[in-house]
Specification:
Low-confidence stretches of chain A: 1-6
Number of strands of chain A: 4
Largest interface: A-B, 43 and 42 residues
Shape of chain A: globular
Distance between the termini of chain A: 25 Å
Strand content of chain B: under 5%
CATH class of chain A: Mainly Alpha
Order of helices and strands of chain A: HHHHHHHEEEHHHHEHHHH
Mean pLDDT of chain B: 84
Structural class of chain A: mainly alpha
Number of helices of chain B: 11
Shape of chain B: globular
CATH architecture of chain A: Orthogonal Bundle
Number of strands of chain B: 2
Largest sheet of chain A: 2 strands, antiparallel
Largest sheet of chain B: 2 strands, antiparallel
Number of domains of chain A: 1
Oligomer: heterodimer
Helix content of chain B: over 70%
Strand order of the largest sheet of chain A: 1-4
Strand content of chain A: under 5%
Radius of gyration of chain A: 21 Å
Number of domains of chain B: 1
Low-confidence stretches of chain B: none
Mean pLDDT of chain A: 83
Helix content of chain A: over 70%
Strand order of the largest sheet of chain B: 1-2
Chain lengths: 354, 297
């Protein structure tokens, strides 16, 4: 939709379905997207290793949050076991590589597929229930998978954890932060595009219909079972790929890091970002990764160097995660994505907003 | 077959199960009254136990004084949480309420860890009761005391809901909010009271468990074991919660027995309740005593 004279029209002037289906609502948003992507491509030239490490973290947590948003935000099925699937992907990729010598680059999507299969196994009974029952069932899935990780030493290395080799492709190793950043960015763009596209298709809209009014959806011929299971499988695939990326980046996967707090953190990401918003998932992931760093910076800026300061910092970070989830739910339940839309709307009408 | 050992495990299970039942009862109370779920139940236990420990151990108050202060503090905490955090979310989707209580649990756990540290501590002079021989088995006196305390708590609960004015008002609210409101029951007050009672009883349970096993962040596991118990008994049945709690307690200990004697897998007792939960959800999602939700168009 091109606006005359480069001005943006305020209001929705779409007149046919094709306009409704476009990727970008205006030329400006396409340009903004291209500029954003270009800036990300150039980021390793500017940023130091620490900044890149944060961006990589945002990348893989963003992928996981996208998956969780597909099942929780778009289909309305809460999942408290997302971290377990994330962990399964990480272990699976490391296992495929260590045991069978599958090239890591191939092992990452394969791990995603394997996780999707596990997700389908847990998702099939979960498709029959919703709300509180589902929350409790997925909580059980988290504990059962955690127990499996601790038990299956052949798969995870048990309490000692599993080593994950760095990614290499035809002699080129993704061993530095800058190189790995491009790998994560590649997967992120691919999966982000897929999720954004999904929402333009029949399947994506069916998922939203299942969330908004499952009875009406069923009457219109949408199979509830099918779409709930599908959403679960997709979410697990995303979690698996994200976990595998995390594993090969850190180089080590331990059973301890895959705990319920991580699941809560991922739910926090999509709540802060905005339930049912593709871009919000990334915003939430960024917020969740950067916020502990901000807390730490603030903590050091206040000059606390008491004996127990390090411990206090760990707890402070944890508390701030919980507090943020509560604050967002009480004051801004639609998340950052909603806030962003409001800012955009304000600028669109400037200086005559209201 | 080691009958003695088996019996010992079953009795341990019954004792622990009564405590599970008591905590599950609190969960059901809140759910019944306000359709809100509390994922921070385990943290209530922890907070209650730590407050009591702090007053007795650090400030050297006698036990009864510390216990009374704990009860008051927990009641206030429960009411405060309802008023500040839960009330704005009335009418929001279930996911929001679930997430806000999860957020709450993270905050409460962080704060207790920060103040009291991760190391387990025991109440001064708690485990000096010795053992009681009962039908040829050694049972620690503290365990018996804890069961007695839990049974007393349940009896008070039963009396409260059967005879007291407030308890009857709460049951009316759980049955039908509009009807209760038209009869002059303040729904808002009922919600606050249900959270306050839930926090109070959980805090007491926390002190009791702390007396038996010592206080550590592991206490929050009680809050998670509540879920298998309430699913087993039915989400909105108080009797069901108690029975579910006892069944889960016994099941856990039986798993430990089978594991220790025959299988040697280790840690089986930790996950068995969750397998029971999943099986129950598949077979009978509304539990043994829960009300079936029939949806009509």
């Amino acid at each position: 939709m091109s606006a005359a004279g480069g001005q943006r029209r305020c209001g929705d002037f779409r007149t046919d379905y094709y306009q409704e289906m476009t990727w970008f609502p205006s030329r400006r948003s396409a340009a903004a997207c291209a500029i954003g992507l270009g800036a990300l491509l150039l980021a390793p030239l500017v940023l130091k290793s620490f900044g890149l490490a944060l961006l990589i973290q945002i990348g893989y947590y963003g992928i996981a949050a996208l998956g969780l948003n597909l099942v929780t935000g778009f289909t309305g099925q809460i999942s408290l076991g997302h971290a377990a699937f994330f962990g399964f992907g990480a272990f699976c990729s490391a296992w495929l590589n260590n045991k069978f010598g599958v090239p890591v680059l191939l092992a990452i999507p394969l791990a995603g597929l394997a996780t999707a299969v596990v997700g389908l196994v847990f998702g099939t009974p979960a498709a029959r229930i919703k709300g509180l029952y589902l929350a409790i069932a997925t909580l059980a899935a988290q504990y059962i998978l955690e127990d499996f990780f601790n038990r299956a030493t052949w798969f995870t290395g048990g309490a000692a954890g599993a080593h994950a080799e760095p990614v290499s492709l035809m002699g080129f190793t993704f061993n530095s932060d800058a190189r790995y950043f491009y790998l994560v960015l590649f997967f992120l763009v691919l999966l982000y595009g897929y999720a954004a596209n999904l929402m333009r298709t029949r399947d994506g809209r069916a998922m939203v219909a299942v969330r908004d009014h499952y009875l009406a959806a069923e009457i219109m011929g949408i199979s509830l079972m099918r779409y709930r299971v599908l959403a679960f499988g997709l979410a697990s695939f995303y979690a698996g790929v994200a976990g595998a990326l995390m594993g090969h980046y850190v180089g080590f996967v331990s059973t301890e890091s895959i705990n319920i707090l991580l699941s809560v953190q991922m739910l926090g990401m999509i709540i802060i970002g905005g339930l049912g918003s593709i871009m919000g998932s990334l915003m939430g992931a960024a917020f969740m990764v950067l916020m502990p760093e901000a807390v730490e910076a603030l903590f050091h800026a206040m000059g606390s160097s008491a004996a127990g300061a390090d411990k206090a910092l760990v707890y402070l970070k944890e508390i701030s995660i919980g507090a943020l989830i509560i604050l967002f739910l009480v004051f801004e339940p639609d998340g950052l994505a909603h806030r962003w839309r409001q800012v955009k709307a304000w600028w669109k009408l400037y200086p005559f907003s209201h | 077959m080691k009958t003695d050992l088996l019996l010992q495990f079953v009795i341990n299970g019954l004792i622990i199960g009564t405590l599970y039942g008591m905590v599950a009862m609190c969960f059901v109370l809140v759910y019944k009254a306000s359709r809100a779920v509390n994922f921070a139940q385990g943290e209530f236990l922890l907070v209650g136990a730590w407050i009591c420990w702090g007053f007795i151990s650090e400030l050297h108050l006698p036990f009864w004084a510390g216990f009374l202060i704990t009860m008051v503090a927990m009641t206030l905490l429960g009411a405060l949480i309802q008023a500040v955090v839960i009330r704005p979310l009335i009418g929001e989707p279930v996911i929001s309420v679930i997430m806000v209580t999860i957020g709450l649990s993270v905050v409460l756990r962080g704060i207790t860890l920060w103040i009291f540290g991760p190391e387990p501590k025991s109440f001064p002079g708690a485990t000096t009761g010795g053992t009681v021989r009962l039908a040829g088995l050694n049972i620690e006196a503290v365990y018996l005391w804890s069961t007695a305390a839990a049974a007393l708590g349940m009896a008070v609960f039963a009396w409260f809901f059967k005879f007291s004015r407030l308890g009857l008002a709460m049951r009316a609210t759980a049955f039908n909010q509009q009807v209760a409101q038209s009869l002059g029951v303040s729904i808002q007050r009922i919600f606050v009271v249900s959270w306050a009672i839930s926090a109070l009883v959980s805090g007491v349970a926390g002190v009791v468990v702390g007396m038996v096993n010592g206080i550590s962040p592991g206490l929050t596991l009680f809050g998670i074991k509540v879920f298998p118990a309430v699913i087993l008994g039915g989400l909105d049945s108080i009797i069901g919660a108690v029975i579910g709690g006892i069944v889960i307690g016994v099941l856990e200990n039986l798993a430990q027995f089978v594991d220790g004697e025959y299988l040697h897998w280790g840690n089986l007792y930790v996950v068995v309740p969750f397998y029971a939960l999943v099986v129950m959800l598949m077979l009978k999602p509304y539990g043994l005593f829960g009300t079936k939700d029939i949806e009509r168009i």
